[in-house]
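Margin note from the TA: students keep mixing up input and output lines. Inputs are the sequences; the output is the structure of the whole complex. Example:
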Amino acid sequence: MADLFLMRALMAGLALSVIAAPLGCLVVWRRMAYYGEAVAQAGLIGIAGGLALSLDLTASVLVVTLMASTLLVLLGRQQVVPLDSLLGLIAHAALAVGVIAASLVRGPQLDLTAFLFGDIFAVSGSDLVWIFVAGVLALVAVIWIWRPLLALSVHEDLAAAEGIGIDRIKLVFVLVLALVVAIAIKIVGVLLAVAFLIMPAAAARPLSETPEQMVLFAAIFGALAVVLGLFLSVSLDTPGGPSIVLMLALFFAAAMFPTVVRGRS
Amino acid sequence: METHSAHKAVLQGAAESETTRRPHDSHEHGRHHHAHDGAALPVAHDADALIGARSLWLTRAGRAILQGVDIDIGAGEIVTVIGPNGAGKTTLVRVLLGLEAPDKGTTRRKPGLVIGYVPQRFDIDRAIPLTVARFVHLGRRAEDEEIVKALTEVGAGPLGDRQLSELSGGELQRVLLARALIRSPDLLVLDEPVRGVDYTGEAELYNLIGRLRSERGFGVLLVSHDLHVVMAQSDRVICLNRHVCCSGVPQSVLQHPEYARLFGPQAARAFALYQHRHDHRHDLAGDPHPPTAADLPPRQDLTWPTSS
């Protein structure tokens, strides 16, 4: 029985590593870590809403992340408040609203830990199906827009002047990002979802010569972290999500070490 | 990004008549001399031009940046836009490229126009691992040999396998030019392409652009605040200071009173001297007021008084 939980956790984690790799690289290249964070924390509102209305939590989280992601694009167009401040503000506001709403729904005794940090060992068979279907959808969409997305990540004006419809590409990207964040919330929770995006990508950067290489290394780091993190979790009875994220942090430190020792490169 | 789509509507002619209905709506308008039309009446777009704009007005943060600008770039023509810093040169380019929407006015481009663009600023993003060859490939899905050829043509042949983030300013400019050229453009747009390039490199770059234009026949829109080398290659010069002060062949612009007013008589004399020393295709003996070397302080010929 315990083996089944472990197998499901392993499959969900490995699937997430592959799905998150290209998205995570794009988030790093486009400097959207805060953006992802705001979308992920808005996910808690989805959880609260789902609890209040007795909806499927996966669906309610997905709806809220998609809405938050679109809303953030619109908010990003104003130029009065810098975008990073705005994103930080929204992330924390969403967290506050989500925690309050959840406690109103279930009372202050509600244990939010599972929502904040995920419970990878609670992944069910139907969760796995959802993760695979959504993951394939996300990967197909990213491959579809990969080239224009890369071009506009390198230089947006240059890409636009060369005739790429950047608005459409960016919209597809933020929607796919919301989808992947929703998958990650399912597995590692609201607070650690973005770690799964940016940490493997950041660890892969010093080793990579091409964008695709960076995606490949990110996927490998993610998968290794899942295996080692779950092993750690089972051996020492530590929480699953945080154990995986700890492994990712160690990989990042190891990958950066030569660069730091050599000095800037 | 929203400006891009907004501008498409303008390109499709939705706003074509917007300015034509209200030509006298600004009290400022009368102050400006328009070398082209001499009147506020709108002029129809030139159907033969690669790209053109009519009566562009643009204000940002309460500051007028473009005030009724008309421009056309014809096939195979090198048009140089000069003007002091803050004259609206880059904004004009951005509007023409569809990166920014004007408040009023229309732009028109030839259907199917392929543009190669060399932007003014390029902050290399170290976050993306990218070789030079791959960067050029983003301009067009080209074969490896084509990319090597394009890089060789701009004198960046050996750079293909280098990381983009390792390039010097001059190398990066050449690579940007290679990316623009590999698109086989009908129009090459270069916004101050010599920032951070030394004097010799600058002259080389302009000679290269002039030569490629002769070989391939694309039109060129060149922006500069630093005219002395550009001049030899330009077919037409547009002197911009939020509005078009004067325009024409380089010689006529040099002698235009608006040009002297904008850049100071020093600039006109300095340029004339420069040309006398270095441009052997023109004999300035017929110039009504030929300056002599004694008129000018040393090396005055190499600087442009309005440059930053």
